Task: inverse folding
């Protein structure tokens, strides 16, 4: 019995020693396959704040998550079910239509006119313009015949009632893609431990103050493309906004600092000594705010 107890104590000491001397990663990435696409820095007093934008080639990393103390969480439910249904339907339909429209019926061409003259005296015959006309003249002098009138024809002009096509126009102005503004939206805190060191409380406090000051000096909002992450960090503390939706999103710096600070207070030491990250997950799961080691 003493031998077994001594062995257990030795194993416990070895495990604790291994945990103390084994370093943990201090450079986590916000998502799998993260690549920095943009980086900049802003000086606030004697502090320098880093801004980075990441693209994510893979899914966002999962966390060994637990809800904060005193809170409860809910997860997705799954279920199976079967159902059958039958339905029949028949239908017939007939339709007729008639239409009338304007038309033209020009007069048929007149038949050629003919005339004849007999006699020894002067005589003149003028053929009328009616179709298929004939006339004869008898006199005592030489006869003359006027040439027949040309056949008359007429064509009715039909005015079209269709409106003239509108003039075509093209615009070269670029069309902007609308973004979904989730600034101020509600999210729920979930604590995570992904094997990295937690940020220090002092650095997170400095970051919150810096964002508050910068809110009046830079644009209050920022845009994040789908499968991208925007981070702001100081020292060991980093706040990140992750867009998991298929469309661009807009978020605001002040909300990022407030939500990140609240997640840190709920999930990080000394409140949660074993956790390293605080995650605030949106109700629809399309975005999240993370506070973690920078």
Result:
């Amino acid at each position: 019995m003493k031998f077994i107890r001594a062995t257990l104590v030795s194993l416990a000491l070895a495990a604790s020693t291994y945990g103390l001397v084994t370093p943990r990663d201090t450079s986590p990435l916000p998502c799998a396959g993260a690549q920095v696409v943009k980086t900049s820095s802003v000086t606030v007093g004697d502090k320098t704040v880093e801004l980075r934008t990441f693209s994510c080639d893979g899914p966002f990393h999962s966390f060994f998550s637990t809800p904060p103390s005193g809170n409860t969480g809910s997860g997705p439910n799954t279920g199976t079910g079967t159902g059958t249904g039958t339905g029949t339907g028949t239908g017939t339909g007939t339709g007729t239509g008639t239409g009338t429209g304007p038309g033209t019926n020009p007069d048929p061409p007149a038949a050629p006119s003919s005339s004849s003259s007999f006699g020894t005296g002067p005589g003149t015959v003028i053929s009328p313009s009616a179709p298929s006309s004939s006339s004869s003249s008898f006199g005592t002098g030489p006869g003359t015949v006027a040439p027949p009138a040309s056949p008359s024809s007429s064509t009715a002009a039909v005015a079209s009632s269709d409106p003239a096509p509108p003039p075509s126009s093209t615009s070269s102005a670029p069309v902007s893609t609308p973004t979904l503004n989730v600034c101020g939206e509600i999210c729920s805190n979930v604590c995570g431990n992904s094997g990295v060191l937690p940020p220090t409380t002092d650095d997170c406090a400095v970051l919150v103050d810096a964002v508050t000051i910068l809110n009046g000096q830079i644009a209050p909002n920022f845009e994040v493309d789908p499968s991208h992450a925007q981070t702001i960090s100081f020292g060991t503390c980093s706040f990140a906004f992750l867009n998991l939706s298929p469309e661009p999103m807009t978020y605001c710096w002040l909300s990022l600092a407030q939500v990140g600070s609240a997640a840190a207070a709920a999930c990080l030491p000394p409140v949660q000594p074993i956790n390293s990250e605080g995650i605030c997950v949106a109700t629809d799961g399309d975005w999240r705010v993370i506070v973690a080691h920078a």
